[in-house]
Every structure is written in structure tokens, then in C-alpha cells.
TrEMBL record:
GO annotation, cellular component aspect: cytoplasm
EC number: 2.4.2.1
Known catalytic reactions: inosine + phosphate = alpha-D-ribose 1-phosphate + hypoxanthine; 2'-deoxyinosine + phosphate = 2-deoxy-alpha-D-ribose 1-phosphate + hypoxanthine; 2'-deoxyguanosine + phosphate = 2-deoxy-alpha-D-ribose 1-phosphate + guanine; guanosine + phosphate = alpha-D-ribose 1-phosphate + guanine
Alphabetical UniProt keywords: Glycosyltransferase, Transferase
SUPFAM superfamilies to which the protein is assigned, alphabetical: Purine and uridine phosphorylases (SSF53167)
Organism the protein comes from: Arctia plantaginis
Protein name (Swiss-Prot/TrEMBL): Purine nucleoside phosphorylase
CDD domains: PNP-EcPNPII_like (cd09009)
Length: 324
């Protein structure tokens, strides 16, 4: 082994720890002390108040548009668009296929807000920050979250272009202790130990299956288990085979932490995965490789049917009283 020399030590002194180059992890705890575990209730209230000052109707449903699915927000009428960079305390979107704005307005008779662009862990944001908009939605009065995502189909019966209603998730990042609720808990958002066994609202899933029949989508609608990995790389064959063994149907890089945050603050949750690619579970030479362009293309390919489906779901969800 080469001996250590003084230059190496000086280089080490100049090393900038990852935390300092992450986008804005230092936060205010509400008592003037910095914390990296999330913005205080009061800070997020300021963000919520800013947004409330820009809109005339309080949205009851929030939609997060997945990769390539930003056009879902284009069905919003009387739209008020607010770029993320104009919103106090908001992160900014850095991924192609994620616009970077909140869109407020109406779908049918229902006041909604859509995130055209979400935040991912692989962009350098800690999980609490990826989920900050969910808490802000709660503070402005949103009751129901509809999270959409693009995902790889692991269930061998799934085809590209299928739409999976998320029945449940496996929080792989949580197994390693990475959770959006990690750190001090503010009971004003929710309890220290929130249950997750009913994370995806049963009534909503039932309605979603009925609506799929009405719209003749039975042949593309599935229901299954989603998991989120940290990304940004797509998975290895061995990783995918492991996930298959534990019951995962679709693999992505989002949604799970958003859903945990939403359930923590008692929002109703519904989620959809658009299957944009087949997960590669064999080492065969002719097996394809996942890529982001394909993900975006399939989003575009399914945009009309997804817009129709989501707008009918919003109408139906808004008409029922549900216990989260
Ligand atoms: O934001 P979502 O979860 O829809 O995006 C998925 C995961 C990666 O961000 C990207 C990979 O193509 O699509
Ligand atoms: N992790 C992961 N995310 C995706 N998003 C779209 N497709 C995929 C995939 O195959 N794997």
C-alpha cells in the first residue's frame, strides 16, 4: 500500500461532504435552530399561505404527475400555474419529463392542484424534501392525493402501456432506515407511528376498477404492489429477480415516500403506475435495456386515456365520503 503523504491529507481537508452540495438541506426547526430533518410546520404554513394568496378556490384533490405524464395537468380549466422557483421553500425539478410547476384550477366541478413535476431522491433531495409538497397540499386544504408514476413491469403478465392501480407498496428504502418521517415528529402533521396497512384507500380502488370497466379499459387495468428504489440507475437482473420473489409487481423511483407522508397527515390516497417498460429478468443477449426515453414515450402514448381515466376518477372520488 502507498504511504500517506501530506498532499493527500490536504486534499482530504478540502473535501466537501455530500451534505453541503445537496440542494438546500439546511432547514429551520421553528425554534431558530437548523435541522436537516424537514421544514417546521410554521415554515410550511408560510408556503401554504403564499399559495392561498394566489388562488380563489381551495383544491380538495391533489395530483402528482409521473414521468411523461405531465399532460394530465393540461385538462385543468381556469388554470393558475405557479413555477416551483416562485414558491417559497419549494425545491426545483431537475428531471426531463417533469415540468416544475403547480397547476391550480378545475377538473369538471372539482377544484384540484397538480404537481407537474415531482422531486426524486436521486436528484439529491432528502426524502422529507421530496415530500414537502404533500404537506403543503395538506395545509392548503387538500383531502385526497392521487399519485401517478411511471414504472417497470415486473409481473410477467403485465404489458407495456398497462395501468396498475397500486394496492400496496414495499418501502425498500425504509428497510434501510431512509424514511420521509425520519427525525423529530410534529404531531400537528400526524402521529409518531402512523399505520400503513390501509395506505391505499379501498373505496377508491374499487371505484377505479369500476370506472376502468365503464371506459373499456379492463384489458389494460391491473392491481398490484409497487416498490420504489432510490435510483437513478435502473435495476440489475438479480435485483429484479429478488423483488419478484418478494411479491413486487411494478418498480419505480417515487410515490412510496409521498404516500407515507400523505397518510401520516391523514390524507386519502390513491396511486396509479403506468407500466412503461418490461423489467429485464433474464441475462439473454437479446433482452432489452430500460431507458428514460422509452418511459417518456409510453407516457405520451397513454396520455389521452390517462387524462380521461383520471378526470372521471376525480369526479367519482369527490362524490364519496371516505374514511382515509
Ligand atoms: O416520477 P416517476 O416515478 O414517474 O419517474 C420514473 C422514475 C424515474 O424518475 C424515471 C425513470 O425513467 O421514471
Ligand atoms: N426503478 C425503476 N423505475 C422506473 N421507472 C420507469 N421504469 C422503471 C424501472 O424499470 N425501474
Amino acid at each position: 500500500m502507498a504511504p500517506i503523504n501530506a498532499n493527500d491529507i490536504n486534499d482530504a481537508k478540502n473535501f466537501v461532504p455530500a451534505k453541503q452540495v445537496l440542494p438546500e438541506v439546511e432547514t429551520d426547526n421553528g425554534n431558530g435552530k437548523a435541522s436537516s430533518k424537514g421544514y417546521s410546520y410554521e415554515t410550511l404554513q408560510e408556503t401554504a399561505n403564499f399559495l392561498l394568496s394566489r388562488i380563489s378556490e381551495i383544491p380538495s384533490i391533489g395530483v402528482i404527475c409521473g414521468s411523461g405524464m405531465g399532460s394530465l395537468a393540461e385538462i385543468i380549466k381556469e388554470a393558475v400555474r405557479i413555477p416551483y422557483e416562485d414558491i417559497p421553500n419549494f425545491p426545483v425539478s431537475t428531471v426531463e419529463g417533469h415540468h416544475g410547476q403547480l397547476v391550480f384550477g378545475n377538473i369538471g366541478d372539482v377544484a384540484v392542484v397538480a404537481m407537474q413535476g415531482r422531486f426524486h431522491y436521486y436528484e439529491g433531495y432528502p426524502l422529507w424534501k421530496c415530500c414537502l409538497p404533500v404537506r403543503v397540499m395538506k395545509l392548503i386544504g387538500v383531502k385526497t392525493l392521487i399519485a401517478t408514476n411511471a414504472a417497470g413491469g415486473l409481473n410477467p403478465t403485465y404489458k407495456i402501456g398497462d395501468v396498475m392501480i397500486v394496492r400496496d407498496h414495499i418501502n425498500m428504502m425504509g428497510f434501510a432506515g431512509n424514511n420521509p418521517l425520519h427525525g423529530p415528529n410534529d404531531e400537528r402533521f400526524g402521529p409518531r407511528f402512523p399505520p400503513m396497512s390501509k395506505a391505499y384507500n379501498y373505496e377508491f380502488r374499487k371505484i377505479a376498477k369500476e370506472v376502468a370497466q365503464e371506459l373499456n379499459m379492463e384489458n389494460i387495468i391491473r392491481e398490484g404492489v409497487y416498490t420504489c428504489l432510490g435510483g437513478p440507475n435502473f435495476e440489475t437482473v438479480a435485483e429484479l429477480n429478488m423483488l419478484k420473489m418478494v411479491g413486487v409487481d411494478a418498480v419505480g423511483m417515487s410515490t412510496v415516500h409521498e404516500v407515507i407522508t400523505a397518510r401520516h397527515c391523514d390524507m386519502n390516497v390513491f396511486a396509479l403506475s403506468l407500466i412503461t417498460n418490461e423489467c429485464v429478468t433474464s441475462y439473454a443477449d437479446d433482452a432489452g435495456e430500460a431507458n428514460h426515453e422509452e418511459v417518456l414515450d409510453v407516457g405520451r402514448m397513454r396520455q389521452d386515456i390517462l387524462r380521461k381515466y383520471v378526470s372521471v376518477l376525480i369526479d367519482r372520488f369527490s362524490k364519496i365520503e371516505t374514511n382515509p
